[in-house]
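Researcher: I'd like a structural prediction for the single chain below. Treat it as a standalone chain; there are no partners to consider.
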Amino acid sequence: MMNRLIDSLSRRNAKIRRKTHGSRLFRLLGGRGAATLAVGAVLSIGGITDALEGTHFLVRKDLDHVQVVRQKGTRDNVVATLDNGFAGNSVFKLSRVLPGSLVSQRVSLFDEAWLPEDAANAELDANATPLQKELHRFNVAIRRQFFADAVPFGGLIHEKAEKYKVDPALVAAVVETESRFRTNARSQVGAKGLMQLMPRTGRWMGARNLYDPEQNVDAGVKYLSYLSDRFDGNLKKTIAAYNGGEGNVKRYNGVPPFRETQQYVKKVMHKYEKRKGEMKRFEAEQRGGGVIAPPDAEVVAVR
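Model: Treating it as a single chain, here is the predicted structure.
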């Protein structure tokens, strides 16, 4: 039930950013008990009833966390704190569906302590300067925000891409090509879920339920990382192997002469380049508008 809810909300939020009509909202919250999940810890164990009795909730998103703040009168209490990953972004997206009279949002990616250490800096050279680390941190935050806002399951995709050091734009392109972001997708040969993994591959990569978005994307990105290592980072060979098999790519020393695989590589590459272009425009908008630019720092790309 939870996976279906997140699937629906994630796709809706990526395609259209608007509020759901009130009557539909309350059918959703009452019929499925969705309120209690996001807004249960969120709308504080008491759920929507408490909100209707004069309590307002602020869902606050910063660089590393999503917090739910319960506001009643002059009193503010933090009732939930989630990592800024798939779960946190799902709660933030769900909050956008709720009426502004009950729940409001605040995005504050940078504050006085906007530079905590984290795994993102691990990919930098050990001799990187503090400024380089800051700028890298800044770039990662922008990309994370782009995927969370613009791509179905984008928070999850970015989280797993960081974990396995794969370009999240590539992961998004593969997911879109494989399943069109449908968690219940199944091919004629038995491939399942968002990244259309065969059960054997899924088990090899540590997934037991391929219809679970987190298990599926974790296993799929791990598999992409494995293939990239096998082919020394060659992008087209990696994509071709994901579709046509590692052995066939080795046999032909490149994209195999199979029409399906050749078309697949073209589709993924097209979506990959398109997504990278969207991300660059988003980055330019954020920096140009001064929305989340760090103070007194020249912004450069750190690859």
